[in-house]
Amino acid sequence: MTQQAFPVAGVWPRLAAAVYDGFLMFAVLFVASLLPALLLNAKQLGNSPATDSVVHELNAPLQGWAYSAYLLVLIVAFYGWFWRKSGQTLGMQAWRLKLESTSGEQVTWQQVMIRLPVAALAFFLFGAGYWWAWLDKQGRSWQDIASSSRVVQLPKHKK
Questions:
Q1: In this structure, are residues 117 and 60 in contact, taking their beta carbons and an 8 Å threshold?
Q2: Counting beta carbons within 10 angstroms of the beta carbon of residue 71, is it exposed (0 to 12), middle (13 to 18) or buried (19 or more)?
């Protein structure tokens, strides 16, 4: 595809897709945290006569930097896999958005690894990196500029 094939996506669809993906990411991280917690606390899962509950205590066995690194790897794998495979996460598919390099090609792992931390910074600074797209003449956010990529709006499918 050429660079001008599709228009650059607006801020609101990008944020809507990010919220959608945020819910999905919460579910992925919840399951990814629950499984090791249950496996590593197997002896505590029995019936407790003191509280008459099945799970009376579930310690978080994954803590500190190891747990954070585990979750970070899952986040990078999630976004990296979707962006490298089709250029779209599930939220981006719902809002008909696609991530591509500025040349219109599929993004590289290097671009993914640059885009993710810049996007997190852009989001956690009250969305300043996203709002920047309103000031940029090409409609780019901070993560677009830093990773030499862009998010485009795909057309609606005709019935």
A1: no
A2: middle
Q: Facing residues of 66 across strands?
A: none
Residue 37 tokens, joined: 């917690």
Retrieve residue 34's tokens: 């629950």
- Strand, coil or helix: 18: helix
159 vs 146, more confident: 146
For CA atoms 47, 53, 54, 55, the dihedral sign is negative
Q: What is the DSSP letter of 5?
A: S
Model-wide pTM > 0.85: no
What are 14's two structure tokens? 């990008």
SS3 content of the chain, % helix, strand, coil (to 5): 55, 10, 35
60 by DSSP, 3-state: which?
Answer: coil
User: Rg of the chain over CA atoms, in angstroms?
Assistant: 20
Condensed to tens digits (0 to 9), the pLDDT of residues 75-130 reads 999 999 999 999 999 999 999 999 999 999 999 999 999 999 999 999 999 999 99
